[in-house]
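Service request form, structural biology core

Requester: graduate student, group of Dr. S.
Request type: structure prediction, single chain
Budget code: on file
Notes: please return the result as structure tokens.

Sequence provided:
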Amino acid sequence: MAFLTETEQAGTWLGRVWSPEVGGPCVVTLRGGEVIDITSKTTPMVRDICEMEDPAAYVMAAKGLSLGSLEEIAAAPVGDKTQTHFLAPCDLQAVKACGVTFAGSMVERVIEERTKGDPQRAEEIRARIGAVIGESLREIKAGSPEAQAVKAALIEEGLWSQYLEVGIGPDAEVFSKAQVLSAVGYGADVGLHPVSTWNNPEPEVVLSVASTGRIVGATLGNDVNLRDVEGRSALLLSKAKDNNASAAIGPMIRLFDTGFSLDDVRAAELRLTVTGEDGFEMTGHSSMKEISRDPEDLVRQTLGRHHQYPDGLMLYLGTLFAPTQDRDVPGEGFTHKLGDIVEITAPGLGTLRNRVQLSTTCDEWHFGTSQLMRNLAARDLL
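Core staff response, request fulfilled:
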């Protein structure tokens, strides 16, 4: 099954596949339903194209060779190095993420902290916070006087949280989600740290940002979330977020061109479906129209004179989705089971599909920067 509709395939797409012929990654685009290898000595990496003045124009004009149909390559088993299959569409870019960017889902972060990762206490605190602030978080702008009033009301009730500070205060939360080249792509397994018993997917838009701070395109991401680990202490954020196969990005970067722009990202509607081997199904959504911080502001807070990224970055924008649907025990909400299939879809950006496993059973990450450089050098691309 292809991850883009026929209409979506008309966009300007940039991605990566594993090629068994060269024993490494190739830079690809889509044309007429075919996956086209556009790797060259000038542009051996996705990073190189994203740093160009007009990445979309380059990709549309680049010479290339068909590797096969989108349908067959999307269906290939990920991890099988004898078959061409899709990888995460980024290479040397840093993988960063913004948290608590939707004030509506900020309440769930406060709950995680207040319950210390105990799902049984969540419903009680959820009701208490709802009684204090009601619908006042809808369409609130972070850092605004209205946001400060809500914060003051919660402090008055003894419900202040560090999540409030980054959720509605002037400064965004930005953290390192994954190491360079460690993200997994469409069709791969995503990993949960084995210590976690309360976790969920997070459907997000991921921006492709050049080293200059210019946003050149967008894709989808699953910022796998360990609610119990982070809920015990915010100082465990790295343990909760950065694990083997815990960052999924894909299926491909849709580059900005005359038919797709940042305004389309601002209007994106993400749909999430989780299907379990036990027959359980959960759906959810995240509407970018409800984000409390504009994507350009999040990029400015991440990259600038205060911090440079010479190879650019991929930036998760956060999610409105916070699952409260019970799966097994009433009042304990949702948590993953191994084998869950997670699909994140947004019109114009396609579908990102992954299977949930433990980080300790997902394929180990071995192909890092040194391996990539050696591979490109052996192919006379450096």
